[in-house]
Every structure is written in C-alpha cells, then in structure tokens.
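Bumping with the actual sequence this time:
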Amino acid sequence: MHSLQVDSVQRWMEDLRHMTEVECMCVLQAKTIGVEEDAQGELIVATGDHVARDNLQTLLRRALVVSTELGKMFQRLEKGRWQRVHSTAVRANCHVRSLVHEYSAARNTPAEMQKYEKSLLEKCMELTTITERCLHTEDKFFLKSMREAIHEILTDVSDSFSHMIDMALANEIQILIRQIESSDSVYTIGSAISNLLSLTQDGPQLCSIIAKEGAVVALFKICRQDCFSDLYAHALRTVASICCVEEGINQLEKVDGILCLADILTDENSTEAARAEAAAVVAQITSPHHTSTQHLGSFLESMQDIVTALIKLCESASCGEVFLLASAALANITFFDSMACEILLQLNAIHILLQACKDRKRVDTPYSKDQLLGEKPSSSSPSEGAACERVQQKAAVTLAPVPRLIELCRSPAERNNSDSVLVACLAALRRLATGCPDSIEAADHQQLIKPRLVDSFLLCSNMEESFV
C-alpha cells in the first residue's frame, strides 16, 4: 500500500510541472518565457545514453495529457457544459502549443510535419475562439449549431494531433535505428535496442510504427554480424516484441529472418540466451492468433532444422524460461503446419517432452505444462488459473486414467471449480465407456454416463451442495 502511495505521489509530481507550465502560458497568452542559454526545455536534446528514450517517453506522456483533455471536451460538449468546454479548450490549446514549441526546438522537424504543426495550432486557436463565443449567449438554436461545428473541429483536431504524434514518434524511432545501423559501439547499439524494446511495451500501435520504420531490418543486420554476437539475444527479444503486429512479421520475411533464426538455433556456438530468444521469435510469428503466418513460405523450408533445434533446446534447457520459450514455439508450429507433427514423431519428441515434465527445474510453471499436458499445479493468479484449466482439459482427453477423471467430475475443488474442465472430463469418460464399458463401475455409470451430458454436468456442478 505504501509503495502505491509513493508511486501515485511521484506521478502527480511529474504531471504537476506540465500543469503549472501550461497555467503560466494561459496567463501570458501562450507567450514563452525567456530562459538562459544553457537552460533547456523538457524535450530539448541533451547528452547522455537515456536521452532518446526519455524524449520518447516524455512525448508519449505529453500526448496522453492532450488526448485526455480532448476526450473531456467531447464529454462536456455532449452535456452542453459550455464554461467547462471553453476552459478545457484553452488548456488543450496551451498543452499543444507547449509540446509543439519544445519539440520544434529539440529537433529539426521534417517539412511535412511542420505543415501539420501549423495547421494543428490554427485549429486549436479556432477551437478556443469558437467555444468562447458560446459563453456569451443562451440562444438554444445558436448553441445547437455551434455544438455541431465544435464537434467537427474537435474531431479534426484529434485526428491531426494523433497523426502529428505518430510522425514525431517515427522521427524519434528513425534516430534510434540510425544509431543501430551506423554505430560500431556495442554499448551504443545496445542502448538503442533497449530503447526500442521499451517502446514496444507501449502497445501494438507503436510496434506498427517501429516496424514500418525498418527496425526489424536493422536488428537482423546485427544478428548476422559475429562481432555483435553479445547483442543477439537482446536484438531478438526486441524482434519478438515487434512481431506482435503483422507489419513486423512481413518485415521479417522480407529480410529472410527465418533463415537467420534457423542459423542461430542450429549453431552450437550460439549462447543459450540467443537460442531461447530465437525460439521466442518463432513462437511469436507462428502464433495461431496471427492471420499472416500462412505467407511465411520460407519457414517450411527451414522447418526440419528449426524443429530439431527446438527439441534439443527443450532437452538441454537450464531453466524454466528457456524450456517454456522452446516448447511454446513447438506447440505453435504444430498448428502452423501438419508436417511438424511428423517431424516430432521422427525425433521421439513426445518422450523427450514428457520426461521433461518430471524435471521441476525445467517445467516449473503452469504455462510450460500447458504446452506439454502435464500434471495439475496450484495457481495464484487468474492467468495461471487459466493455464491450469487448459492443462486439465488437455490431460483429461489424452492422459488421465478413469479414476482421475471420475475424481475431477465429482470434486469441484480438484478441478478448481472449472466448468470447462468438468465438460472435458465428462466427454472423455463417455468415450472411454464406449470402448471399455467394464472400466467404469455401475454407480459411476448411472450418474456420469447414462444421463444426458447436460444432466450429468448439472449434477456434478452442484454435487458439493448436494452432499452438504
């Protein structure tokens, strides 16, 4: 509780400076205050390793402030609260001007972006002027017509601002990519990669911008140079994050990224960390959630080598994280193409993976067991609970003996009160009863097999209450 309070206060202190700066600008009618030559605004470029990342994070934070104000305007406009609409318009106008002026001072902005900035500032001023006019009248017809006009301008301002921020972010990302491409320093390149990785955590929209600016191409250039072998793992982790969007996967295929991944996975001199991150990229690009994976034609050419290398990585993994990444990649590949299943059978992969289940050092989380159909672990979070349910469902239809299935049906606690696990167990029991009717006792058959599935489900789901 104490840490949360500290974080909240710290965030408030950070935001307070933006708010007070803007209020000063409101009083001075958006005139800038002179500063000494060596003083710099928040977005001014300085020396240091973390400046690029700080500039980007500041830009995102300031953009969020403006977006929040514009969102408030939409809400207050709908309610007809004209005084607040105008005050919010003034604040938004000052926030935008402050951001644009500081960023223009910090960077040589492209000509196209300068046009957007000029147009945006004009629209913000128009918005402030037109909302002020609405304060001095109570004519309902006039206010209704003004509301429509303001809504149109506000929508235009929001779209223009979003586009301008995207251009500014793209400009900053280009600077990081140029550092990766032009520098010979491992430290400089590593710092730029760290900044890119940090940005990928801000959502898929930013990942799309990063991919479009050519980050995947630059990162794979690093992964093809022996002199930067220490950066392979870091670069591949960033690639995996970028490939959460289709633009990243498309860029990966264009630069023959699959071949590079196969080389790293099969190279015995590659570190375990690099091979694990290569497996993470494979897991990401073959995820069933992507619609573009079927276009990865080059993947089929390297599938034999990749699957073989992943099996070896599962077998030799030194920790649970490495095993999880490799097994997740294998699981996704089996959905990607049926040929992978044949390769797994040839390599005796089932035996290797099931043996791994006995090693708590390697298979130490519900997520790993979700890939391998392991035993039921305990869980303490919603995500782990969901993984446990998937494990139990898969185990019920593949590995569980009859007594265990009956126990899962009759005991809600054993199945974590999961209805989906109950349905899977009932379905598995009914299939077993068809082939081996003698394996189920008469009492169990009467309750779990003979009734309709829905009736057995209702009986078992309420069984705990029935015995009380």
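The tokens above came from a reply further down the thread. The CA atoms of residues 104 and 114 lie 9 Å apart.
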